[in-house]
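Before the break, one more example. Copy the sequence into your notebook; we will annotate it together after we see the structure.
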Amino acid sequence: MCVFRLALLTTDFRAPFHKCFASGILVTFIALAALSCGGQPGDALLGTQPLTWDGDLSARMVEGIDRFLMREIELSVGQRQKFWHREFSSRDAYERSVQPNREHLQTAIGAVDARLASRFSQ
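Here is what the structure looks like once it is written out:
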């Protein structure tokens, strides 16, 4: 939003001249301060360096996320038995053995609220 339009929005034209003038100067000062701060390279924060990578940074980020997730999936394969204690002797035994995992998933995805009755049930 341009400074002039912002000044028009914040100025009450029924107020005395000195109030209009003061609010206009305040808006102008804030706008100039904001413009002078943006886009200027400053000193890097302590312990950091400026980002100087070339190319598409979003593609680089997606590649990093993909590497991380693929590595985590590979690590999870070996640790699944720690969390899953499945009983294959019967269907009922299997259902009981995986019930804690199902409850954990329901909590993780937020599906823990009781279902509401349908308006269309008879």
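Residues 3-34 form one domain. The helical segments are 3-10, 17-37, 57-83, 91-109. Try to locate both features in your own notes.
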